[in-house]
Amino acid sequence: MADDLDDVTDESSESSEALIAVHWREEGYYPPPASFVAQANASDPAIREQFTEDKYPDCFTAYADLLTWYKKWDTVLDTSNAPFWKWWVGGELNASYNCVDRHLETHPNKAALIFVPEPEGDAHQAITYRELYVRVNEFAAVLRELGLKAGDRITFHMPMVPELPVAMLAAARLGIIHSQVFAGFSGTAAGHRIADSGSTVLVTIDGYYRSGDLLDHKVKADEAVEAAAKEGQQVDKVLVFRRYPGQYSAKTPMVEGRDVFVDDLLAAHKGEIVEPVALKATDPLFLMYTSGTTGRPKGCQHSIGGYLSYVAGTSKYYQDIHPDDTYWCMADIGWITGHSYIVYGPLALGTTSVIYEGTPNYPDAGRPWRIARQLGVNIFHTSPTAIRMLRKVGPDEPAKYDFHFKHMTTVGEPIEPEVWRWYYDNVGKDEAVIVDTWWQTETGGFLGSTLPAIDSAKPGSCGPAALGIYPVILDEDSNEVPAGSGKAGNICIRNPWPGVFQTIWGQPDRFVSTYYAKYNKDPKSTDWRDWPYFAGDGATQAADGYFRILGRVDDVINVAGHRLGTKELESAALTVNEVAEAAAVPVVDDVRGRMVEMYIALKPGFDASPEIEAKVKAAIETDIGKIARPKNIWIVPDMPKTRSGKIMRRVIAATSNFTDTGDITTLANPEVVEKIREQVQTAK
Ligand code: PRX
Asked: Atom 14 of ligand 1 has which residue's CA nearest to it?
């Protein structure tokens, strides 16, 4: 429990991103073009009145009504076991049916997914709703044959290929709880998540393309199974999709009795139909692991009814998805953005969702725009990191291609106003709206964003709260920080919403202590008003009600929109024998927003060397993955510490970021600060 409480202690704010946030000046407004307003799903400002607090929680039935239910709910929101909220209690539905089967009546031959492989010479593959139906059913038959059933967990360690949504929807058809691990994570990281979720089946692929390389992915499955076994979890079956039959998988080593190629299994299930199971709205749909303050990742558990209704509703009103749009979210399905806004939201609304295997700037910065032109993409969704990268390497590229977006999204990290304007002018070509969407793995869908046909966008701010979301900024003493005060505080959501996660898998105490304990005054209360959701972000609210998110206030670093826990990074570094102490801090980076810098102090008798640095880097790549690679590793003579021996990350972060270290006179070893500053700042 002490470990769990770490998530919200003062200590955790010491290296926080919010402390190094750049405070931009207030920008002007960008109203939506008339052409956008004319076709938008929500263009009447009166929609807000349907979501005011007096209509809560029933207002969200507008979202639930977008779905097809086997049985309607009896209770909209049950708060009796606060803060484990239950939405649509008594209702029954199936997510796979909602994303696939029901579209067969209206548009069976329309593309549900368009897969764009990274090699530019390879043809893209359009998968119609009917084909998706066939593939989902056949894979569901495979899972059923393995004995998997509702409530069991299955782990996917899959890259951006259409087999991933097929597998997700097949699991959802049977009520099997899926846990997709980002393909860029190491085998060891996947193994921890397999063990935590108690999965007995792992689904993977032989290889995939990334930045021009055909990567061997199966090797990670072997590492994952081994890592899971060390934690006492046995994996009985590893299902291997074949991305490149003949070219690659012939070389893939398979473990007899455990590993099977999926196409061999599918052969016995051609054309088989698996009826979707009617599941409770409150049953779990999937787990999505994310980093927290402690080393152990958190399996955020999302419900079928609440989650699906929320992503369908926000896809309709905020993404402005219509069935005849071609929608491309250039995120990865291994993260929550991909779950909500590549797979579940767009498919629930019956649109065409593009899946791109590769990186945005491979082979050059024109690739995304060629894809957009070729497929006629009209809604585009990406991260500030991708926008910064494309702007840096190919600022004039978008003008060379004839593509037209009506709507663009940014997600995952704060976007600098000048980057926003480049996106608006050069990619949007003055024809598109931009929504800056603030939310989290835990929240299922958007919390803060403009309603694109109603609100003007303001660069650098995500906008007002989403429909039916009532945020508040609180200081450490639970006082409200007023809008327009220019002061920052902890942004919290005062009310539950359908997309909010249900719990942390297997760690209910950590769920309460991390997200709800900080501002709860009565742990017995069943009134939702007593349980503000603590998001872990610093924010300010301008007088117009728009929120600006400053970054994490806890020990989480958001690198290129991906969350990394400082404890995870530090424990990886500590596996290196020579390392005595390690501290990970965020540093501002002009492409990735934030990156990690590692400070290392060595055990007595060891001297700094490039070999030790290389070992630390390798340890991080093995334990977490290449995405966690630090920007710099500084081997320093000692760490600045308080008299009680606590490492002062705030001071270290200030050194990395050339900001003021604040008062250091009370440290046990203030003299070391100057030494570190000289070492690091001279080298930069
Ligand atoms: O710090 C916030 C930042 O990303 C965190 C959530 O990360 P994750 O769970 O990986 O989900 C990312 C995709 C939703 C938040 O706590 N964040 C997310 N969106 C924004 C943002 N920061 C500023 N502006 C955003 N639009």
From this structure: 440
